[in-house]
Amino acid sequence: MHDKAEKLKKSKIPQVAVSDELKHRLPPGQMLTERFPILHEGEIPEYDLSAWRLDVFGLVGAERSFTLEELQALPQTRVVCDIHCVTRWSKFDTAWEGVRFRDFLALVDVKPEARYVMFHADQDYETNVPLEDLMGDDVLLAFKYDGKPLTDKHGFPLRTVVPHLYFWKSAKWIRGIELMSEDRPGFWERNGFHNVADPFREERFSGEALPIPEDEWVRKEFD
Questions:
Q1: pTM to 2 decimal places
Q2: Residues 206/194, Cβ–Cβ less than 8 Å
C-alpha cells in the first residue's frame, strides 16, 4: 500500500459536468457523488468502549486522557460541509456532529510553542495538520454522521472532520492528539501524498500534482 501514490498517478483526469451554481464548490479534478465511498487501509478496529481513551500529549502542560463518555458530555456542534477525497470524489452537504476542535483544545493546557498537531489513529495511522488549520468553526472531533452515530467503517467511535483539506487529513478511529512545535509528516505524507492537501490547489501528491484514476473510488464499497 505504500506505493499507492505512484499507482494513482497513471490515469487520465476525469471530465466532470457540474451545474453553474455548484461549480465554485467543486475543486479541480473532482467528481460529485451522492455516495459515501469507504476507503481506508488495514482492518476496521474493534473496541472495548469501557477501556477506550483519547490521549492528548506533546506540548501540553500535562498529558490528559479522555473517556468516550467525557467527550460526549462536552457541548456538541452540528456542521454541514462539503468533503473532498484525494481519489477524486466530492460529496456536498454532509452533516456531522461532535465537539469543535478549538473548544476541546481549550480544555488542555497547550504550550505557546505548539504549532502543529499529529492525529494518531488505529490501525497505526497518523496524519499531520497545522494547528491554525484546526481552529475553524467547521473542524470537529465527530461522533455522528447524518444524525446517527458513526458506523465502524466511517470511524466509530471518534474521527476528525477537517473539511477544507483532502479527507485523508480527517482521520478515522483517532486515539491520540500530539501537539508539536515542528511539523512531521504522517503516514500518507511519508508515502507520496502532499503535506498540505488543499483540494482547491489540487495538492494531492508531494512534488508535481499528477492525475489520479477517475474510477479509483467507484470500485470501493460505499454507503
A1: 0.87
A2: yes
